[in-house]
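Input chain follows. Return structure tokens only.
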Amino acid sequence: MVTEVADGEVLATDIFQAKYRAAAPAHGHHIFAFVRLNEAWQVGSYINYLPHREAMLVGGACTDGSVLKQCAADQRESIERAGGLMLQTVRYAEQRFAGDSVGTFGHCGDARSWSVLSSCGYQRLDHPYLIVRWNRKLDDQKRRELIASVAALGEF
């Protein structure tokens, strides 16, 4: 099950801490992929989307490998056939925010994350690690200004 959870910082704490050794974001939209284990839902994957001007910023993607290891073989195979948990969270969020956002920006230097994000329509920009998935066309000036404003943020 993939869904957005209001005030999801508490649910994201353990998985985010394990991946980034930092507190989970208190801001933005918290998107989770939950996995059913032993009659309970467990956080399997998390990603955060944050509004920026007329766009969104995506970050904090993480998947809990220990949850996947606890899955039955057929459940793991089903997740793999669907492209994995991160892919499911990104697809959900991109569909959810496409109407509200001209595009989604991220920072990506990880090959595994890039394979997921590029399959969802992200493209690299002329900036180290900065990527974007456009939902609508912008005139060249607005596009340059938006990219510059995102680049000025540094890592997010």
